[in-house]
Amino acid sequence: MAYRVVPLTRLIEQFERLPGIGKKTAQRLALYVLDLPQHEAEAFADAILDAKKKIHKCAVCCNLTDEELCSICSNPARDKSVICVVAEPKDVIALERTHEFNATYHVLHGCISPMDGIGPEQLCVKELLSRINAGGVSEVIMATNPTVEGEATAMYLSRLIKPLGVKVTRLAYGIPVGGDLEYADEVTLKRALDGRSEL
Question: Which of 2, 32, 114, 158 has the fewest CB atoms within 10 Å, counting from its CB?
């Protein structure tokens, strides 16, 4: 008979459900949690439950927040005339790390992917259109990933937004800093050439 501890197996299975976590990593995480002192394990579990209870979508941009409006939407210093559309909350975090963008965001919570059964109805598209229709928006920046799904989503939204008289732009993509041209694929090189700027 194989060695099996049911509560441990269940814990491992829960960790395995997390994105990017395989069976061995799930086992390591489960065993790590079991080694925590009782109060730390309870604090860990409480943090998960507390986040699940308190975090929801911002009423304006659909980013994650524990208030009615996220800290970006409630900041009067932000330029509300420009909206940067991203697929996920983690994309906002990445762009904010640059300390270069001082406008607002809109989080779609995914990309259009017919293969996965995700259409525009499952995304926060209505909320974006409501913001634009309310007026005061001059530019929408499409910052979805340069994948088939990201490109399809950007094109779909562009077709909806342009007739509203709002400028729609796309993030430039190209060669990463420190990258070698010989290792770049054709699509990346084409985008780098298309997005070139004057020095």
Answer: 2
Q: How confident is the model at residue 190 (pLDDT cuts 50, 70, 90)?
A: confident
Q: What is the pLDDT of residue 197?
A: 61
**Cα dihedral across residues 155, 156, 160, 161: positive or negative:** negative
Q: Are residues 113 and 31 in the same domain?
A: no
Q: Is 194 a member of any domain?
A: no
Which helix (H) or strand (E) segment holds residue 79: the answer is strand 79-86
Higher-scoring residue by pLDDT: 56, 179 = 56
Mean pLDDT of 185-192: 77
Q: Are residues 113 and 17 in the same domain?
A: no
For the beta carbon of residue 52, count every other beta carbon within 10 angstroms: 9
Same domain, 68 and 47: no
Amino acid sitting at position 115: M
Strand pairing class (64-65; 56-57):
antiparallel
Q: Is the pLDDT of residue 3 over 90?
A: no
CB 155 within 8 A of CB 149: no
**Residue 72 and residue 22 share a domain:** no
Q: If you write DSSP's letter for every residue of 91-150 in order, what string do you get?
A: HHHHHHTTT---EEEEE-SS--BGGGTB-GGGTTHHHHHHHHHTS---EEEE---SSHHH
Containing structural domain, residue 35: 6-54
